[in-house]
Specification:
The structure is a single chain. Helix 2 crosses helix 3. The protein is an alpha/beta fold. The strands form three sheets. Strands 1, 2, 3, 4, 5, 6, 7, 8, 9, 10, 11 and 12 form a twelve-stranded mixed sheet that branches. The protein has a three-stranded antiparallel sheet with strand order 13-17-14. A two-stranded antiparallel ribbon has the order 15-16. It is built from 16 helices and 17 strands. Helix content is about 30%, strand content about 25%.
Length: about 425
């Protein structure tokens, strides 16, 4: 399976309206003297859109001694950023842009050797999933040293605040996985205990702009946490009638209500960050009343019934999985392989029951998750060897384990009764 540059390097460029929104939020607290030097950093500057927006916001507010710093590991991105910033601002700002790997750039801050600190950091860090980090050895090594597991943006979130001046501010866009997933728990605890998180804007699955992740906007200050964190959630609401309409994305992020925007309807909730058992959610009076009603009527939670697991993740579905919509001969041939099991997929999940499994999966792992030898399974071995080129091309899989799933489960539970549900569902099912 070929790895696209977008997946390997996590490239997602920031829409101008989001860049302006983040810039306005960062500029709410500024040095009192407009003549003071303002140092700004974008540690993954790409084409310079975030630096452009923040600089424009500062110039409008009368700040003229602006020092811009940007790094990116792509030479063409640095040249594009330099060209755009020089064309827009000329000699009004000082540019310090360079090609460098972030894991190398941040090392002096981790060692306490750096002397340049910043009033503002604005960032849209690359989102590179664990399985695509194989080509980024320095990044993997740095994340391991810090005890971080998971996506690359976590390295940025945990280390970037070290480059802030006292009372300096940082804002950006990351995956909303930060709010609740297990791999982000350590970073959540670290940020909440060390810094003042001033604002969170969860855009959920709205697809309001192109991104490889479900986006979360954040704003924090380099000072001791002393107040509650404001939080806003924006989720699409199907079947509702918008009470008001807005023409700009930024307007959608600042007012609570049921808003119409670009022929769709969105529920905007405003409140405060609630951290319970390390999970971040929004809290306000309406949500608190709703949660109380639910808890009063709750007999038990799913976690009380047993272990909650994610489904399979093969990263080569065309090889490992067949659905019932393929020709009958292909169904029969695939299902006859020794290591093939019935598989319940998303469309099979229904209220109270699941439909008959509509797929099969070839699962070459033992009950404990270890990789099986194929010698005892000649039909499966022959089939997998036919797809050796596709499976071995997955750079994050060891060559000697070329036929493994990326994330598997024990086959012993395949035939056991279980509760299943979709991770994301637009309507109750």
């Amino acid at each position: 399976m070929a790895i696209t540059p977008e997946k390997q390097h996590g490239r997602t460029y920031t829409p101008p309206e989001i860049a302006r929104f983040l810039s306005d939020q960062l500029c709410q607290t500024l040095p009192s003297d407009p003549a003071a030097s303002v140092h700004i950093l974008d540690p993954s500057c790409g084409d310079g859109a975030l630096l452009l927006a923040l600089t424009s916001a500062l110039l409008k507010r009368g700040y003229q001694n602006i020092q811009l710093y940007g790094i990116d590991n792509e030479p063409w991105a640095i040249e594009q950023a330099r060209s755009q910033l020089e064309k827009t601002f000329g000699e009004m700002v000082s540019l310090n842009l360079k090609v460098q790997n972030y894991a190398q750039w941040v090392t002096p801050y981790l060692q306490g050797d750096e002397t340049i600190f910043f009033d503002m950091i604005i960032t849209n860090p690359p989102y590179v999933r664990t399985q695509y980090q194989g080509a980024l050895e320095s990044v993997q090594r740095r994340m391991k040293e810090l005890g971080l597991k998971g996506d690359l943006f976590l390295l940025f979130l945990q280390t970037l605040p070290l480059a802030l001046k006292p009372d300096g501010r940082m804002g950006g866009i990351v995956s909303n996985k930060l709010l609740q997933t297990k791999e982000c728990r350590g970073v959540r605890q670290y940020l909440l205990s060390r810094y003042q998180i001033e604002g969170l804007w969860d855009l959920g699955d709205t697809k309001l702009f192109e991104a490889h992740v479900l986006p979360l906007l954040f704003l924090l200050s380099n000072k001791k946490p002393s107040k509650t964190t404001k939080m806003t959630t924006v989720y699409e609401s199907r079947g509702k009638q918008a009470t008001r309409r807005v023409s700009r994305l930024n307007d959608l992020l600042v007012s609570e209500g049921c808003w119409g925007f670009e022929a769709r309807c969105f529920d905007v909730n405003q409140g405060f960050l609630r951290s319970t058992n390390g999970i971040w959610t929004i809290e306000n009076d309406r949500i608190r009343r709703w949660r109380t009603r639910v808890e009063e009527r709750t007999a038990f939670r799913l976690q009380d019934c047993g272990t909650i697991r994610n489904g399979l993740k093969t990263t080569a579905n065309k090889v490992f999985i067949r659905h019932r919509d393929v020709p009958v001969w292909e169904q029969q041939l695939f299902s006859s392989l020794e290591l093939v099991f019935p598989l319940v997929v998303t469309k099979d999940a229904k209220a109270y029951r699941a439909d008959k499994p509509s797929a099969w999966v070839l699962y070459p792992h033992d009950a404990d998750g270890s990789l099986l030898s194929l010698e005892g399974y000649p039909l499966s071995k022959r089939y997998l060897e036919m797809h050796y080129q596709t499976l071995s091309a997955r750079s994050y899989v060891e060559q000697k384990k070329w036929y493994k799933h990326h994330v598997g489960q024990s086959w012993a539970v395949f035939r056991q009764p279980k509760l299943i549900w979709k991770e994301i569902s637009r309507v109750p099912e």
